[in-house]
Write a structure and sequence with these properties.
Strand content of chain B: 15-25%
Radius of gyration of chain A: 21 Å
Mean pLDDT of chain B: 87
Order of helices and strands of chain A: EEEHEEHEHHHEHEHEEHHHEE
CATH architecture of chain A: 3-Layer(aba) Sandwich
Mean pLDDT of chain A: 88
Strand content of chain A: 15-25%
CATH topology of chain A: Rossmann fold
Helix content of chain A: 25-40%
Shape of chain B: globular
Strand order of the largest sheet of chain A: 6-7-8-3-9-10-12-11
Shape of chain A: globular
Low-confidence stretches of chain B: 338-351
Number of strands of chain A: 12
Largest interface: A-B, 46 and 50 residues
Distance between the termini of chain B: 47 Å
Structural class of chain B: alpha/beta
Distance between the termini of chain A: 30 Å
CATH class of chain A: Alpha Beta
Strand order of the largest sheet of chain B: 6-7-8-3-9-10-12-11
Helix content of chain B: 25-40%
Number of domains of chain A: 1
Number of strands of chain B: 12
Largest sheet of chain A: 8 strands, mixed
Order of helices and strands of chain B: EEEHEEHEHHHHHEHEHEEHHEEHH
Radius of gyration of chain B: 22 Å
Number of helices of chain B: 13
Structural class of chain A: alpha/beta
Oligomer: heterodimer
């Protein structure tokens, strides 16, 4: 994989938010949302970004599209460094990189008709004739399996799944090559969720799209992602082929995350579960050393002082852990793999 | 009623033919239709369904929290031998919190932001028991500790917004359990939480029946959560019971096409990845747009002529389903599933 040129590359991306105010107790605080994040996205693949709330996966998605300015690092899209570009310079690029949002209820303007909502990017970006716009609208509705009659209706007339289809139609209107989808199915009912996951996969086949797919649901990510990056507290802790990461996790956090997923297994989940104690620490005051050491079942002295870097194992699989795990199961409080 | 259901002596709650409808300008809207279920002592019953299926409305009806003057509630809700629908407001208020307690999805909106966690638990204790302020505070701190909150004495002095989501949910469970209720109704208690925290809360809910002897009604949309904690399951769809029975049976051999569809549409964590996920076409109907006959039939791959009339619950051992296919015993799903998958592929090729 290293020989290929990535479509999108993030190198040591850092993003800090300033919260609070100097007029309030606590004063100004800096939230380190992303610290030193590097990853590559290759053409035609789906990169899954998973992690718990507050781990920085949405922030990373928005930084990749330069919806946020970076505090450090570099983002390269199709060979061009886009980290320093201003809004005006970014605008032509936006046609090629689009986003699908989580909440189909909040991301569509309730006062505009579906046809206008989907046509907006076409009208803003292209100098198309109105007849061309109408043809493209029909084509798009067909791609997302909605009836063209719906174009004259308003968003409130649709169910959550249909609204998400409208959001997807709008994102693919300008034929982008990259789509960042931020939790696109987590607000939907289970029966509808499967339809939308299938739609994402069909569109990838038909249009050759590249996805960065952000989700907290590991089973959805397993279904759609070719490679998966697991994030914890602003950093990537593990990255590799999806099945490799989910079935033979090398990072104790990934292993605990997988074991916490309740599965619809009729026998109940009798398998040994590793229940992590506590909750992720605050990103305003991250712990020193490995950020996971406060909850890690196999943390050692070294983990408390030295930050583990993301380093390659075999098979394009990398992990940020001093003591990566070997097997599929996390030994309950047992000694680390390579100690 | 099947033979090995809990006997009336073990029954804590027996809901019979519960119907809830609302009068509106466009006529009466039926929300729940003939919902019957039981909860035994120390039993965990899961009610599963998608949004709009009526699962939350069921729990609100049991708590008598539907206060809309246009609501029409019929049926019987027998709790420890008394019909809750016949109780006056005062008797009901006495029962709520002490006998039946409820926790909600979002603890931030369920707690008042202007008092500390400790104050709110004390208030609940003192409303139902004769306790001094000091004794109530001691009990509140003890409860917070039992729920696994670190430094409970300090946590009791915190306001809800100062705690994390998982800690708030623990505080709410502590409040719900403060009067040792016999029945805890948990409405999507882990939906807003991360999986690692969800695992902690589910473990806590399972422990309740040992430590507190409580029965639990767990309302959820997540089949994984159902599999983890419950004894029995009731699947709801569009205001009716689609299927109910012991958890291992319902999950291993669903007898309603909706249950089957729900289970199939969850992407598997192990084994081969399906090229396409089996999905249920369309979306759940709104209460005003419910189809005649079986409400699931427009989305059902197995519909046939009888589905035009509403199917009753057909029992098959301990498992019951409102589907004509379940009438003749369990349908041969693996066979049906193959036909269904084939149909989908053809459909996909045509599109």
């Amino acid at each position: 994989m290293s020989g290929r040129v990535p479509m999108l590359e993030a190198a040591s991306v850092t993003k800090t938010f300033v919260v609070g105010s100097r007029f309030r107790s606590g004063g100004i605080q800096h939230v380190q949302a992303l610290s030193d994040v590097s990853l590559k996205v290759f053409a035609g693949e789906t990169l899954g970004l998973v992690g718990e709330s507050g781990c920085g996966k949405s922030t990373l998605g928005r930084c990749l599209l330069r919806l946020y300015d970076l505090n450090g690092g570099r983002i390269t899209f199709k060979g061009r460094d886009i980290s320093g570009l201003g809004q005006r310079e970014l605008r032509p690029l936006r046609a090629d990189m689009q986003m699908v949002f989580q909440d189909p209820y909040a991301s569509l303007n309730p006062r505009r008709r579906v046809g206008d909502l989907i046509a907006e990017p076409l009208r803003v970006h292209g100098r198309r004739r109105e007849s061309e716009v109408q043809d493209r609208l029909r084509e798009l509705m067909d791609l997302v399996n909605l009836s063209p009659e719906f174009l004259t209706r308003f968003p409130h007339e649709f169910s959550g799944g249909q609204r998400q289809r409208i959001g997807i139609a709008r994102a693919i209107a300008l034929a982008p090559s990259l789509i960042v989808a931020d939790e696109p199915v987590s607000a939907l009912d289970v029966s509808v969720q499967a339809q939308i996951v299938n739609l994402f996969m069909d569109l990838q086949d038909k249009l050759g799209l590249t996805y960065v797919f952000i989700a907290h649901d590991l089973s959805v990510v397993r279904q759609i992602a070719t490679r998966t990056a697991v994030m914890y507290l602003g950093g990537i802790v593990e990255l590799g082929e999806t099945d490799r990461v989910l079935h033979r996790p090398a990072h104790p956090y990934t292993a605990a995350l997988i074991s916490a997923v309740p599965e619809p297994d009729p026998q109940g989940n009798i398998r040994a579960r590793t229940i992590l104690r506590g909750e992720p620490p605050s990103p305003t005051n991250p712990p020193p050393g490995c950020r996971f050491h406060t909850r890690c079942p196999i943390a050692q002295e070294r983990c408390r002082v030295e930050v583990p870097l993301l380093r390659p194992l075999e098979d394009a699989h990398s992990v940020a852990c001093h003591f990566p795990l070997d097997g599929p199961n996390l030994p309950n409080g047992a000694a680390p793999g390579h100690a | 009623m099947p033979a090995d259901m809990p006997t009336p002596a073990d029954l804590l709650l027996d809901v019979q033919d519960l119907c809830v409808s609302f009068r509106s300008e466009r006529g009466t809207i039926r929300i729940l239709e003939n919902i019957s279920f039981t909860v035994g002592q120390r039993e965990i019953l899961s009610i599963v369904g998608e949004s709009g299926s009526g699962k939350s409305m069921t729990s609100l009806a049991v708590m008598r929290l539907i206060t809309d003057p246009n609501a029409i509630i019929t049926g019987r809700i027998i709790y420890k031998g008394r019909d809750l629908l016949q109780l006056d407001a005062r008797a009901m208020r006495d029962l709520r919190g002490r006998e039946i307690a409820m926790i909600f999805q979002d603890p931030m909106t369920a707690m008042t932001p202007v008092y500390t966690i400790g104050w709110q638990i004390e208030e609940q204790l003192r409303a139902h028991q004769k306790l001094s302020r000091r004794a109530a505070r001691a009990r509140a701190v003890e409860l917070l500790g039992e729920m696994g909150i670190p430094a409970p004495a300090k946590a009791a002095t915190r306001y809800p917004h100062q705690l994390s989501g998982g800690m708030r949910q623990r505080a709410m469970i502590a409040m719900a359990l403060s009067c040792n209720p016999s029945l805890l109704i948990a409405d999507e208690p882990t939906t807003a939480l991360d999986v690692t925290v969800q695992a902690q809360i589910l473990e806590l809910i399972q422990r309740l029946r040992q430590d507190f002897g409580s029965s639990v009604i767990l309302i959820t949309h997540d089949m994984g959560v159902v599999a983890t904690v419950s004894d029995r399951v009731m699947v709801m769809y569009s205001g009716i019971i689609a299927e109910r029975g012991p958890k291992p049976l319902v999950l291993a051999q669903p007898s309603h096409p909706y249950t089957l569809g729900l289970l199939n549409s969850i992407p598997p964590m192990h084994g081969a990845r399906p090229r396409r996920l089996p999905s249920i076409p369309g979306s759940p109907p709104s209460p005003t747009g419910r189809p005649a006959g079986c409400p699931f039939q427009p989305r059902c791959d197995f519909r046939f002529e009888p589905c035009g009339t509403r199917p009753p619950l057909f029992a098959n051992g301990e498992q019951e389903a409102s589907c004509y296919l379940a009438e003749k015993g369990l349908p041969d799903w693996p066979h049906e599933r193959a036909i269904r998958a084939e149909g989908r592929q053809r459909e996909g090729a045509a599109a």
